[in-house]
Known about the structure:
Chain B has one domain (2-115). Chain B is 84% helix and 0% strand. Chain B has helices at residues 2-27, 32-48, 52-59, 61-64, 67-85, 88-115. Chain C is an alpha/beta fold. Helices cover 34% and strands 23% of the residues of chain C. In chain C, helix 1 links the parallel strand 2 and strand 3 (36-37). Chains in contact: A-B, A-C, B-C.
Amino acid sequence: xxxxxxxxxxxxxxxxxxxxxxxxxxxxxxxxxxxxxxxxxxxxxxxxxxxxxxxxxxxxxxxxxxxxxxxxxxxxxxxxxxxxxxxxxxxxxxxxxxxxxxxxxxxxxxxxxxxxxxxxxxxxxxxxxxxxxxxxxxxxxxxxxxxxxxxxxxxxxxxxxxxxxx
Amino acid sequence: xxxxxxxxxxxxxxxxxxxxxxxxxxxxxxxxxxxxxxxxxxxxxxxxxxxxxxxxxxxxxxxxxxxxxxxxxxxxxxxxxxxxxxxxxxxxxxxxxxxxxxxxxxxxxxxxxxxxxxxxxx
Amino acid sequence: xxxxxxxxxxxxxxxxxxxxxxxxxxxxxxxxxxxxxxxxxxxxxxxxxxxxxxxxxxxxxxxxxxxxxxxxxxxxxxxxxxxxxxxxxxxxxxxxxxxxxxxxxxxxxxxxxxxxxxxxxxxxxxxxxxxxxxxxxxxxxxxxxxxxxxxxxxxxxxxxxxxxxxxxxxxxxxxxxxxxxxxxxxxxxxxxxxxxxxxxxxxxxxxxxxxxxxxxxxxxxxxxxxxxxxxxxxxxxxxxxxxxxxxxxxxxxxxxxxxxxxxxxxxxxxxxxxxxxxxxxxxxxxxxxxxxxxxxxxxxxxxxxxxxxxxxxxxxxxxxxxxxxxxxxxx
Lengths: 166, 122, 331
C-alpha cells in the first residue's frame, strides 16, 4: 500500500516538476532578473568615453603643434592612449575604472589595449611563448580578424568599382 | 571659440558612440567582444559609404579614438592602397594603416607582462 | 518504489572541519570565524593555481590535526575543485599518503564529498575519510571568464567566486551526525546566461527539495536551517518563490552560503558568492561548529552546482545543474 502511495507521490512530483516547463522557466527568470542600472551606466559611459576622446583631441593638437603631420599625430595619439591603458592595466587601476565606465573605456582604443595587456599579464604564468605569445590576442583578436576581413572585402568591391567606373 | 566647439563635439560624439555600445550591452545579449567586432565593421562600412569622414571632420578624436575609428583607418588604408597598387592593395592596405596601433598594443602589452603580475580585486 | 533518500543507520560523524579563505572573505560578515587566511590571496605561491592547491593542503592538514587522528588513520581523501581536471586537488593531495578520489560537482562538490564520504563510512567500507573542496576567485576567473585585469562590467545577477577551501574529517567521533543523504539529478532548464547561475541552479535545488520532502517524514519546519550552497541572491529568491508555489515553505529557515559569506551591500559581489569553496568554508567555519555546540539541531545542507564549461557555453549550450542534499544533526 505504502509503495502505491509513494508511486503516486512520485508521479505527482514529476507532474510538479513539469510545472517548470523550460520555455516558461526561461521567461520567468528573464522577467524577474534585475537589470543593469542602464541610466547610470549610460551616464558614466558617456562622460568617461567623451573624456577619453577629449584627451585624444588634446594629444592630436599637441602633436600637431609640435610640427608632426596630421596622419602621424593621429597614430601617435593612438599609441599614447594605448601606452596609458597598458600602464593602468598593469597597475591594476584600469579594471576599477572600467567597472564603473563600462563601454566608456571599452569602445575607445583603450579597451582594445586593455584586452591585449590584461591577457598578456594574466597568461605569463604559462610562459612567454605558449602563454603570452599564444594567448595575447584571445580577447582582442576578433576585432583585428573582422577589421581585416571587412577591409579586404571593401578593397575588392572598391577595386571592381574603379574598374567599372574608372 | 572654434576650439571650444571642436572639443565639445569630440566629447559628445565620442560619448555618444560609447553610450550606444552601453545600451547594446545592457539591453541585448551581445557580449562586449561582439559589440567591438560590430563597431569595427561599422567603421569600415560607414567610411566606405563616405558617412564617417564628415563625422571625423566635425568631431576629430571623438570619431577617431573609438573603435569605429580603427575601422575607418582600415578602410582609408585599403582605399589608398588599391588606388596605388590595384587589387593587391585590398590585402596590404588595412594592416599597414593600423600597424602603429596593433604593434603598440603588442609591445606595450608584452612589456606590461614583463613588469606587472595580476592582482586580486579589492 | 524505493525511497530515494539514503538513511545512514550508523550515523557517521563529522569529527573536524577547517577553513582557509582569501582576503575578501576575511573582510566579510563571517570573517573572524575562519581558521586561516591570506592577505593577498596568494598563500605564498607564485601562481593562482598553486595558491588554490596550497589552500587545500592547509585545510586538509588543519582538519586532520583537529580531528586528533593520524594521517595514516584516514582511509580516503575525497577532493574536488573548479579547475580543469581538478588540478588544485590533485596537486594538493600529492602531499598526503592517503588514497584519493577526485570528485567534480562544481559548487555542489562540498555536499557531494560530504554525502559520499558519509555513505562510505556508514557502510563500514572505510572507517574515516576527509572531504575537501576549494575554489579561488583568481584561478576560476581566468578559466571561466576574463583575465583579472580585464575591464568589464558584471550584471546584477552575476555571482562572485569565493576564495577558500574547507575540509571535513568524517569518522566515528564527534557530535555532528550525518543522518540522511539525497544525491541530486542533473537538471537543465535551458538557462544560458553565465551571469545568472543562480537561476540555472535553482531548478535542481527545487527538484532535490521536493524529492526530499515527498519522501521524508520531516517537514521544512523540522529544520533549524535549510542551507543552500551558493544560489546567491537571485537563485535563492527563485527557489523560495517557486517552492511556495509548490506548497513548500522554506522562507523562515532558508539561508544561502553565497549570501552569508559576503556583505552584499558593502562588498561589490553582486548576487553573492559561489564556487566550491563558498559553501565549504561557510559550513566548516559557521554551521558545523554551531551543530557541535548544539546551537543548531537539524540542518539541511543543499550544495548546488552549475555543470557547464566555457566551451559548451560558446557552442550555445545551456547550463545543467545539480543539487546534493545532506541532512546533518546534532547529538
